[in-house]
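your task:
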Amino acid sequence: MLHLFKKKKETNHAHETLILYGSKTGNAKMVANELKKYSKTNNIHLPVENMSSFHPHLLPQLKKVIVVVSTHDDGMPPNKARKFYKKIHSSEMPKLNGLEFAICGLGDSSYEKFCEAAKMLEKRFVQLGATAILPRKDCDEDFGESAAKWICEVIRKLEGKTDSSPSQNISADSLKQNNSFSGEIVASEKLGEDCYEKETYHIEINHFNKPITFHPGDLIEITPVNPKLLVDSMAKKLSVKRSLIENKEISSLSEVTVKAYALEANNKDLHKLISKPKKLNKFISKGNALDLYLNFPSSLNASTFIRLLPPLQKRQYSIANFQRSKDDALHLMVKTIRFSYKDSIHEGAASVYLNESIHPGDKINFKLISVPDFYLPEDKNAPIIFLANGTGYAPVRGLLQQWQTEKYKSKVWVIWGEQKHRAQHKYYKELLELSQEFPEIQFQPVSSREESQVKYIQDVLQLHAAEFSQFIKDGAHVFICGSKNMGQDAIVKMDQILHRQSNSLTIDQLTEQDRLHCSIY
């Protein structure tokens, strides 16, 4: 239990202090609303605003701003908060010399850019002349206790209190996530393989240890097991015990890990690589920890090198079905990551674990992460455009099941890009049959490896620019899911199309109206 202070005469801070949040999964919004609730209990009435609808040029009108923001997508703020970040970092942003601020960041310390969105905002506030009234609070995945403490600290500052004579309790339980589950793998079915013979599987999880409610668009987060091939190879070539590397992140690299090793290794070739960002990014995208150690040798012993590696990172997967009843299994769509690099086989830790290491009857532990920003619109008449590539189709499958089950009346346009669509693919057959059953659903498959002028999603958008613009004018919601490159290319193409149309929305306006929904990785 944490404590707040005695009530005092009602104070109206509505026009001088604001709670501002940027949220993707709803956690930052929850912390902001808890702060508002307990502020009100202490007779301080504070408005709460979403970054997606707040213009930073209004900040000079405030005396204090209290911010809660989460970090996603390699150190970025939530998608709907990015316009706010873009504007506050613009050269047109006025000074904030009279503003005081406090910031709480939510993140996951297993990722290299932990709470980066909060750090970015703090740095920019200071650059503009604002003053921190509290040190920035960085909260890890289990943020309940630390966020509750921060709420108490904020209210203490707003009250002007310096003593510690609490009379009222605040429980961190209201901020704790009850999202850890275990279940049983009940099905694992090969869907097909791509042009590089990477296999994609349909996996079902059921028989959960407690009741679970999930929605298409939500994610599950798992801690994988490192590929046996890599563990064995590292243990042998580095002459170390398997136990030293089993819980380390060895199948993938980060810039932080490479630079940390460079500081210790003093290898000229590695420093040269770091000085060339494009080559460094290519190495990071393909290489693993063993590549780093063997290709850039040093006098550093293996045990010291292993200590530089971060803990084994969690991986997230989109849920691929709609839960029609409490007994429904949870579906995943997982592609096995396996390729040759530097004359050796490289494997993805999570995909190999899910597709090959565990089997029906095995147990799996996971966390459920709600992503309300990626849910279907409440308006069942609003048109919908789905843009997905590869396994990015997973949440689209679930959303289409919901569309059918809940009897939506909207027009739907699905553009699904694959290297090559195969007729026997379970999901492809489902979608083809659904589009034949419901004339409202327009399905446009795109294959990058086929003999065709139209190979990518942005090609379809360009070819059907007028139709896309009409969908937007009719109030369409756009859902983008898949690779970061596809997502970025699609957004650029949409922006170009909309700019050419008179009386049309911009991408920023589409985002402000909560009609652009992105889940890219």
